[in-house]
Amino acid sequence: MKLFRQIRANLFIFGLPFLLAVFSCNNDDSYVADLDNTNLTNEDSAALLFMLEEEKLARDTYTYLEGLWEINQFSNIKKSEQSHMDAVIGLLDQYNIAYTLLSYGEFNNPDIQTLYDQFIDYGSENRANALEVGANIEDLDIVDLANFIDATTNSAMIKVFESLQCGSRNHLRSFVTAIEVSGNTYEPQYLTLEDYTLIINDSLEQCGR
User: Fold this and answer.
1) Which of 67, 88, 98, 181 has its C-alpha lying 20 to 30 A from 108's C-alpha?
2) What is the signed CA dihedral for 102, 106, 109, 114, rounded to 10 degrees?
C-alpha cells in the first residue's frame, strides 16, 4: 500500500489547482448548510472540489468491491459515502461553485483516477485485500479532512467536514473490525499510530450535520 501513499502525497500537493480548473457544471441537491460564515477563499473552494472527488472515490470503490465480494461493510458504507458527496454538493451549490461528476469509476483528477484503478486491482484479488482498501480509504479521508479543517475559517465548511470526518472514523472502525475478525491486522497508512489507536479504541460515534 506504500504506492497508494505516494500517489496521495502527489495528489494533495498538485490536485487542488487542477480541480479548480476542470470542474465545469452544477447539479441540484437539497442539502442545506449553515452559511453563518460566507467568506470562502480560493483554497476553500478547491478543498470542497477535492473532497467531492475523494468521497466519490470511496463510493465508487465500495460499489465495485461490493459487487465482487458481497461484503456487508461495502453495501452499507457506500450509501454513507453518497450522503457525504451530497453534503459537499450542498455547499458547492450554495456557494455557486461549478463542478461536474463523471460516471462511476471515472474522475477529473488523474491522481484520484490512478488511486481508484489501483484500489480496484488490489481489492479484486481477494476479500482480505478488499477490506484493506476500505480501511485505507477511510484512513486517507480522515487525514485530508483534518488538514482542510485546520486550513479554513469558514464555519459552514468546518461543520460539514467535521461531520464527514466523524463518519469516516466510524467507517474505519467497521473495516478494521472486519479485518481483525478475518484474522488479519491493519496498519495505518496516513494517520499517525497514536491517532489511529485513539480512533479504534473509541466507541461508535453519533455524527450529526
Assistant:
1) 67
2) 170
End-to-end CA distance of the chain: 32
Q: pLDDT tens across 145-154, in order? A: 999 999 999 9
CA 77 to chain centre: 11
Phi-psi region of 91 (alpha: psi -120 to 50; beta: other; left: phi over 0): alpha
Residue 77 contacts residue 62 (beta carbons within 8 Å): yes
Cα–Cα distance for residue pair 62/77, rounded to 1 Å: 8
Separation of alpha carbons 106 and 86, rounded Å: 18
DSSP assignment string, 11-49: HHHHHHHHHHHH-------------S-----HHHHHHHH
- Residues 119 and 96: their CA atoms lie apart, in Å, by 32
